[in-house]
């Protein structure tokens, strides 16, 4: 058998590139795209044996995995799809992958709808929310509240350096929410006007820490200082199983050029530029984690994690 990595399809590689460059972004969206890419690997493969196809799928999973390190929805998606890739023939393996992907994507969509209903119950008619970055889980809560007839106002942080707050602003306007866009450093200035800070998550650790877009932890401290509740909307696919066994979550460091034009940096002189994409908000600054299974105080999220994952997991491409 030749090297399985050489048979990873162009579609898988294109999806991996799009995740790496953040053309495809957001933890739930990344999970959906990665699962669908594995399906294309299974469908387009010319493997002659079931084992060959499984080796190809593991190679494809690795290419997809090695794109962005922080959102655990990515390895969780790959693991879900590969878990049942058994079968004695190529056709069996292919069929089981297709079934898993369809099931996974349906569950993802349903989880977001269910989570949205839970989150909407926290919001009252006339409330003002503050958002950070762009999270489809957060927007599902707002959308459900609007569908319940609640009138909401939003203060949207632009979220440097990639300005995903602009996407949030656009989608909130489409829902009929009144939007005020602010620069990140104006959050404290407007906190007294806010009833709830709503953030998403890329990963949730077993101790209830929320790993989300850089700036979330500072926002949470400001919210706590002013007594404003901070709620994290995160489907259970954001729960990070490795943290059950003491691992920490890798924080992605992105290109300096997202922060400053390289020519300008050169002109300034000898400076170091750092661009961490995420930070860690300790559980004491978070009031609730809203999932499709209900809302949890961050400190008790570990019980849900043990229910879902047992004591831990292996990487999606490890042969057991
Ligand atoms: O899954 P949903 O709620 O859509 O997004 C969750 C999180 O993913 C995003 O990361 P990035 O923009 O991919 O770096 C943001 O940090 C956002 O809060």
TrEMBL record:
Reaction proceeds via a cis-phosphoenolate intermediate. This is Ribose 1,5-bisphosphate isomerase. GO terms for biological process: L-methionine salvage from methylthioadenosine; pentose catabolic process. The keyword Ribosomal protein does not apply. One of its GO terms (molecular function) is ribose 1,5-bisphosphate isomerase activity. The active site is at 133 (proton acceptor), 202 (proton donor). Its EC number is 5.3.1.29. The keyword Protein biosynthesis applies. Catalyzes the isomerization of ribose 1,5-bisphosphate (R15P) to ribulose 1,5-bisphosphate (RuBP). The lineage of its organism: Archaea, Methanobacteriati, Methanobacteriota, Stenosarchaea group, Halobacteria. It comes from the Archaea. It comes from Halogeometricum borinquense (strain ATCC 700274 / DSM 11551 / JCM 10706 / KCTC 4070 / PR3). SUPFAM superfamilies: NagB/RpiA/CoA transferase-like.
């Amino acid at each position: 058998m030749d090297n399985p990595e050489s048979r990873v399809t162009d579609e898988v590689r294109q999806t991996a590139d799009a995740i790496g460059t953040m053309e495809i972004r957001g933890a739930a969206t990344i999970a959906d795209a990665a699962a669908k890419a594995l399906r294309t690997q299974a469908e387009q493969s010319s493997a002659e044996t079931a084992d060959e196809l499984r080796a190809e799928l593991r190679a494809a999973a690795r290419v997809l995995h090695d794109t962005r390190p922080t959102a655990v929805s990515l390895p969780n998606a790959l693991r879900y799809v590969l878990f049942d890739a058994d079968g004695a023939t190529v056709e069996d393996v292919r069929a089981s992958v297709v079934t898993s992907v369809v099931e996974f994507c349906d569950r993802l969509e349903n989880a977001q709808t269910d989570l949205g209903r839970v989150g909407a119950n926290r919001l009252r008619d006339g409330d003002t929310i503050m958002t950070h970055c762009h999270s489809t889980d957060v927007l599902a809560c707002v959308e459900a509240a609007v569908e319940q007839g609640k009138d909401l106002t939003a203060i949207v942080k632009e979220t440097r350096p990639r300005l995903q707050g602009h996407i949030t602003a656009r989608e909130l306007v489409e829902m009929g929410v009144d939007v005020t866009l602010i620069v990140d450093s104006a959050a404290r200035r407007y906190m007294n006007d806010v009833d709830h800070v709503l953030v998403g998550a890329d990963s949730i650790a077993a101790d209830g820490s929320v790993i989300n877009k850089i700036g979330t932890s500072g926002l949470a401290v400001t919210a706590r200082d002013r007594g404003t509740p901070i709620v994290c909307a995160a489907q259970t696919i954001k729960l990070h199983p490795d943290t059950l066994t003491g691992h920490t979550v890798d924080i992605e460091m992105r290109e300096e050029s997202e922060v400053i034009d390289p020519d300008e940096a050169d002109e300034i002189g000898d400076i170091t530029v750092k661009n961490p994409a995420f930070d860690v908000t300790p559980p004491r600054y978070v009031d609730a984690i809203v999932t499709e299974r209900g809302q949890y105080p961050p400190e008790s999220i570990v019980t849900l994690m043990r229910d879902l994952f047992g004591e831990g997991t292996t990487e999606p491409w490890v042969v057991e």
